[in-house]
Amino acid sequence: MVDPVTEPIPYAWDAFVKEESLPVLWHGRTLATASWLGQTPSVLCAVTDGPRTVALFFGRLQGLSDPRRYHAPAEAAPGFFECRLYPGSLAGYRFDERLDAAGQAAAVAAFESALRARFGRRVAGVAYRHVAPEHVAAVRGRNRLVRPVQPEPVLYNRWSDPGQYRAELPGKWRSQLRKVQATVAADPTLSVRLCPEVPEREATRLVQQIGRRHRPWWLIRPPIPESYFRVLNEDPGTEFVCYFSGERLLALSTVHDTGTELQMSHWGSRDRTDGGRQNIYFDQFLRVADLMIDRGRALTRFGKGMTEIKARFATTQESRFLVAGR
Which branch of life, at top level (predicted)? Predict the structure, then answer.
């Protein structure tokens, strides 16, 4: 168990990430970079059984923080440990697929024991975010609160070509999405490219603009640093659906290809007053779905949020839960 800002990443962590073909969002270097966003300490924990790594856990001790600080010292204030992958809305745990229910529960117990050994009474409780139904029993303990949260939209690939996918879109939205694509294609000032990297400063600014639009004015969060997009740029499994006006970047959609599935993460776009376009948010999902079909990937995870909009693209709404308590 380490704080990735101040301590080296355990070999067991990245070895498990590589073995399980997890996206770059789970790489130790990525999480170390993301941890500088935290105003409270981050924790990265690899649970092993002999030579075998059986589970990973990542999150933050969420207590009182000073909004003027980007990273708090190890002497954290008491609070709940929030198990979640930052930045974003993904579950902060991964189990070895060979673990049975008893093994998963044992891995959770080992993690929580190490967590309390590190922080003592400063850990008032643990909150697991975005828990899949099959893992609720492993993390709920005896008396923890279990509450359904916003589901995760997942698009399962069952088509041989993009045209077939378009034909099977929900009837209510099929013609509307066709118009969206036609509008984007007809704009002579707009071009769309799949890029292996993006300008780091522009990317963090555009993603930050989206964050400002969708969170309360009083909620202060440090922006994603340029160094985070530098890590994504260097990852061969990460690409960006980019929208340009000439050579000016208008929007980007981040896509991680594990070789078996696609994971969408960061979306950023200019405001309409700064040259942004109205329909490209919807257009990105069609393009990523086409990419999934063309590459023969099993599924695409669209990411949490905007559930009703993402349902228009034939996604399955998979249940997720918050599990919290002592």
Answer: Bacteria
Q: Which residues contact 272 (CB under 8 A, 6 or more apart)?
A: 278
What are the DSSP E strand ranges found in the chain?
A: 42-49, 52-63, 79-85, 90-91, 93-95, 123-131, 145-156, 191-195, 238-245, 248-257, 261-269, 299-301, 316-325
CB 92 within 8 A of CB 128: yes
Give the least confident one: 95-104, 174-183, 218-227: 218-227
pLDDT digits (tens, 9 = 90+) for 134-158: 999 999 988 899 999 999 999 999 9
For residues 56 and 86, membership in a common domain is answered with yes
Centre a 10 Å sphere on the Cβ of residue 276 and count the other Cβ atoms it contains. 17
Cα dist from 280 to 22, 155, 170, 215, 250, whole Å = 28, 19, 19, 21, 10
Do 166 and 278 lie in one domain? The reply is yes
Quote the CA–CA distance of 153 and 306 in Å, as a whole number. Answer: 9
Same domain, 304 and 198: yes
Q: Reduced to 3 states, what is the DSSP secondary structure of residue 218?
A: coil
Domain at 225, CATH number: 3.40.630.30
Structural domain boundaries enclosing 261: 153-318
